[in-house]
Amino acid sequence: MSNISLITKIDIHRPAAEVWEALTDPEIIKQYFFGTDVKTDWKQGSAIVWTGEWQGKTYQDKGKVLEIDPGRYVKYSYWSSMSGTEDKPENYQNVSYRLNEVNGITTLELTQDNIKDEAAKQHSEQNWQMVFGKMKELLERPKVK
Fold first, then answer.
1. Exposure on the CB side of residue 73, measured as CA atoms within 13 A
2. Along the 145 residues of the chain, how does pLDDT read in single tens digits?
3. How many CB atoms neighbour CB 20 within 10 A?
4. For residues 127 and 125, what is the distance between their CA atoms, to the nearest angstrom?
5. What's the CATH architecture for 4-140?
6. What global pTM score does this model have?
């Protein structure tokens, strides 16, 4: 296991409950996360499977919900079929989302560990910022009445 990890944050001008829904609702996730389909029940110990297509290649990534405090925090293991690594425990990463709301603005903090090297860390951080930037755009868009 690598001891390289990252922490990245984004502020979203929406209540934590809406951000949590965007992090855990498969229909919303698909809208901002590269069209990925997510299957899980978000209960501790449950499997998570992400499927989709990226640059013409299909993928099936997987993990397990390790800890969850609904509405505030979730930590899951994660392995990508596109990582070029074997599907074995030492190749899984842990990813967590933590929400903190102050005055209707929610800070989403992501942590990711077991990153292979500094280049991979930089790549991951750019991807997360892009994904969460799209989620922020989606959530902060004015609602049509």
1. 8
2. 568 999 999 999 999 999 999 999 999 999 999 899 999 999 999 999 999 988 888 999 999 999 999 999 999 999 988 888 899 999 999 999 999 999 999 999 999 999 989 998 999 999 999 999 999 999 999 876 6
3. 21
4. 5
5. 2-Layer Sandwich (3.30)
6. 0.91
Gap between the Cα atoms of 86 and 130, Å rounded = 27
C-alpha pair distances (Å), 59 with each of 9, 34, 55, 131: 27, 12, 10, 17
- 100 alpha carbon, distance to own chain's centre: 16
Question: Measuring CA to CA, how many Å separate 23 from each of 4, 51, 88, 116, 128?
Answer: 24, 16, 26, 25, 12
> How is residue 32 annotated by DSSP?
H
Residues 6+ apart with CB under 8 A from 140: 12, 13, 14
Residue 1's alpha-carbon distances to 60, 63, 94, 115, 127, in angstroms, are 22, 16, 11, 8, 22
> Where do the domains of the chain lie?
4-140
Nearest Cα residue to 80 out of 100, 98, 57, 56 = 57
Question: What is the full DSSP assignment across 47-69?
Answer: EEEEEEEETTEEEEEEEEEEEEE
